[in-house]
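Protocol step 4 of 5: obtain the predicted structure for the target chain.
Materials: sequence only (see below). No template structures provided, no constraints applied. The aim of this step is simply to have a reference model before the mutagenesis design in step 5. Sequence pasted as it appears in the construct record:
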Amino acid sequence: MKKIEAIIKPFKLDEVKEALQEIGLQGITVTEAKGFGRQKGHTELYRGAEYVVDFLPKVKLELVLVDHMVEKAVEAIVASAKTGRIGDGKIFVSQVEEAVRIRTGETGDDAI
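Step 4 output (structure tokens):
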């Protein structure tokens, strides 16, 4: 099993969700996040005062899936989240040791 964590722009969430559903993905966790990468934020003007916005709004997606679905899921996220501009986000893939469905006690791939 693998865990995919993707940081994307908030307005791309619906497109990414639909793309993942099209490849047969069943579960996803979404968290609102703030952060910055190379873009390092920007300055804004509010009521005549200039201030720096260091942390930009992002959305963090987390999904755990069987190994053979990882490549399809990553491709779906990239295709649907990409705008071609700086700040499109990142995808991280890591190994998951174990999964347990609390309700039934199922473990491993069956718990997904």
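Step 4 remarks: The radius of gyration is 17 Å. Residues 11 and 27 are 20 Å apart (CA to CA).
Proceed to step 5.
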